[in-house]
Amino acid sequence: MTKPSLPQGMRDFSAETVRKRNYIFNNIQKAFELYGFEPLETPAMENLETLLGKYGDEGDKLIFKVLNNGLNDPKNIDKATAGFAKVLEGKNTTELTERALKYDLTIPFARFVAMHHGQLTLPYKRYQMQPVWRADRPQKGRYREFTQCDADVVGSKSLLNEVDLANIYHHVFTGLGLKGYALHINNRKILAALAQICGGDLMTITVAIDKLDKIGEEKVMFELKENGLNDQQRKTISSYLNIIGSNADKLDALLKLFPSDAMAMEGIAEIKFISEKLPEVNLILDPTLARGLNYYTGTIFEVKAPSEVKIGSIGGGGRYDDLTGLFGVKDIAGVGISFGVDRIYDVLEEMNLFPPDLQKGLQVFFMNLGEKEANVSYNILQQLRGAGISGELFHEIAKMDKQLKYADKKSFQFAVIIGSQELQTGQAVVKTLSTGTQEKISFENILTFIKT
Amino acid sequence: MTKPSLPQGMRDFSAETVRKRNYIFNNIQKAFELYGFEPLETPAMENLETLLGKYGDEGDKLIFKVLNNGLNDPKNIDKATAGFAKVLEGKNTTELTERALKYDLTIPFARFVAMHHGQLTLPYKRYQMQPVWRADRPQKGRYREFTQCDADVVGSKSLLNEVDLANIYHHVFTGLGLKGYALHINNRKILAALAQICGGDLMTITVAIDKLDKIGEEKVMFELKENGLNDQQRKTISSYLNIIGSNADKLDALLKLFPSDAMAMEGIAEIKFISEKLPEVNLILDPTLARGLNYYTGTIFEVKAPSEVKIGSIGGGGRYDDLTGLFGVKDIAGVGISFGVDRIYDVLEEMNLFPPDLQKGLQVFFMNLGEKEANVSYNILQQLRGAGISGELFHEIAKMDKQLKYADKKSFQFAVIIGSQELQTGQAVVKTLSTGTQEKISFENILTFIKT
């Protein structure tokens, strides 16, 4: 028998971790509901066709594909064999794997909207908090199963949505105690103008700039050179990437860099509109922010964790003008944001920001000191549970030491002791475990005593 | 472009359904916590090896297997090709699929306990509420992704655990309004005694009896004949299956059927012990209850929905003496129960038992009647949201009709109207949408007005 283990990049969450994660989820969910977003859940599996081609070639490789069932059925063998040959050639095919695990929440959401757009009240505002799966190489802070929390609005081009979404970030992160967060903002229209001026391809430039944090400017420039951008073009990009100062300084610099480009002007005006409505938010205009996904068309957001922790991005999102167009339904504009829950967890842990009372234990522990005694204890316990008080009777007759050790490990608040003597007098010993004080309480008054 | 769709047996849950499902989850979770169980979450994917052979041959076929990534890497091709050949022969192999989606919550839990048994405080009581996946043929009430809610105790042989678990069922089902539920109970020791008396194999008999509800006694008897049981043996089983009457009558009949069998006596005594401690629970001793899974060794439970709905089992569980033994860790006894959430959902729907206020809408809707007006409205809205009141400002300037139609669809409670006139007077029109009444409220008093 092999020793049991977990697949790489997969995690078990025990009670303490579940409670901490739920604390984050609850904070995010409350904000989403406060801002008028409604829940949606989509299944773990999608048709592979729904996902392929939506995340770039690299993304396609990271999709977990689910083997078709019944491949040994004679009527399936030929198709499966053809599919397997394609897989060995590194080609995408649904012949062997019709289904796959979802890679993010955005594409399943777009698929949902495309399927139901006739019945939805637009603008449709949904939130979704579910796991996604990626066959990435596991490393610190990166897992193969992780939970995304997304909020999107579709069916509205209004920038008020961007304002709401930025305020949701502010609400959640200040609520979690992360006052030092920074919300970076940029606009794809500005990047498109940059590409136009340079004569380069928007995606090439976006993909290169997106790596700036990881590989540095020198390597970005090298990549752009490899992609055919000449000295002059690279110089423009370099001066763009080196715009610094306050948000107002940066807006000025951008206006100078694109003196009469209509597309750039639009992008700049959008940033201005949004930032003026967000006096409380720590908004940072960041020309180097690009975001790799190619469906963004306007505002892009990214949230950085407080600089004292070296964790980087803890959320991001942006505006897309035609996401459902991927599924044949045109002209449904949208904008959305995502929270990186696993990263946020690491930040709160490192900054010691989880509230201590998340891990509060059970309320009442009943000792088990004999068959008759246990019967009486269990009846009182059921009375307490009926009144919403959590508790346990020790599962077997055992020495008091052993029982108290268990009560201690599970952090009970009270211990109720009913032995043969207490059975006779009708009075239990009730011990407050944090202080060690104890009192005699008649059986019928235990509920009232615990309640108060 | 193909029309977007969902894989067979998969479901999207929109807001109304999510809220109803959460209502069920919350009720179950509260009961689990009340009885001292702690949360655990395990990943969607397990090593295929962990799952294979745990659910019988039929179960193995229904496991969703995840294709290994990087099969076209030269160093993987040989292994993958060998694996693919085995798959086409209908054999189990991990060469093509090292990972699989979890099929239930019990085996991943056993795997977790086997990995961590040294660090756990025993008895370890955990609950787990997560989706599982089975490649079953989809049909009404049976999906390929569905959520299980399990509670298990490991490290204790005490029957008090069975009593607690039965009380959890009672607590949850009465809490959900399902007073007509019935908790069927039997004991594998009695079935083992039956097998011994008949000279038949326990699993053969269990598997056959388990089908009684679906195929009827005649076909069960035919299956037993096919499996080599003679007339006399089948007669004994038939008289066992036809034990009727009150629980006391049935206990008497069982005592007569197994006059001096130690194993049967143990099973009967266990049922007696448990039932005496459950005066409130609608417990039905059911000799025909067998449950297919072969790891059960003592008590077995099954919950039937109220008879007015034809939905059948909505939960089940039982005692197993050596679940972690499958993973090399011996002597950790346990007992657990499971809730069939999808079935419970159907029952509540059919009996109209979901509370109407689950679907309460948002609180405050602000009309958008101009740029300046919207600015003022948004500031007030942010004040309300800061005080925990949910609301929205309409995303764009539009006709009042259009805006009110949206507010109606999303079931807001109040509409706040700030047009150019209200901007001058500093008083908004606040409309209570359920009654149609409206009042003028000064901007600074809107929060107080809505709160009260």
Please give a quick description of this structure:
Two copies of one chain form a homodimer. With 452 residues, chain A is of the alpha+beta class. Chain A is built from 17 helices and 16 strands.
Description:
- Two copies of one chain form a homodimer.
- Chain A is elongated and about 95 Å long.
- In chain A, α14 (371-386) links the parallel β12 and β13 (391-393).
- In chain A, the strands form three sheets. Chain A has an eight-stranded mixed sheet with strand order 1-5-6-11-10-9-7-8. Chain A has a five-stranded mixed sheet with strand order 13-12-14-15-16.
- Chain A starts with 14 loop residues before the first helix and ends with a helix.
- The first copy, chain A, is α+β, with helices and mostly antiparallel strands.
- Chain A has helices at residues 15-34, 48-51, 56-61, 74-88, 106-116, 160-175, 188-198, 202-210, 212-226, 231-241, 247-257, 262-276, 341-350, 371-386, 400-409, 420-425, 446-451; strands spanning 38-39, 45-47, 65-66, 99-101, 124-133, 145-154, 182-187, 283-285, 299-304, 313-320, 334-340, 364-366, 391-393, 414-417, 427-432, 438-442.
- Helices cover 42% and strands 18% of the residues of chain A.
- At the A-B interface, α1, β1, β2, β3 and α4 of A face α1, β1, β2, β3 and α4 of B.
Count of strand segments of chain A:
16
Distance between the termini of chain A: 53 Å
Q: For this entry, what is the oligomeric state of its chains?
A: homodimer
How large is the count of helical segments of chain A? 17
Q: How does the helix and strand content of chain A classify structurally?
A: alpha+beta
Q: Spans of chain A with pLDDT under 50 lasting ≥5 residues?
A: none
Provide the helix percentage of chain A.
40-55%
Shape of chain A: elongated
Largest sheet of chain A: 8 strands, mixed
Give the overall average pLDDT of chain A.
93
Chain pair with largest interface: A-B, 93 and 94 residues
Radius of gyration of chain A: 29 Å
The proportion of residues in beta strands of chain A is 15-25%
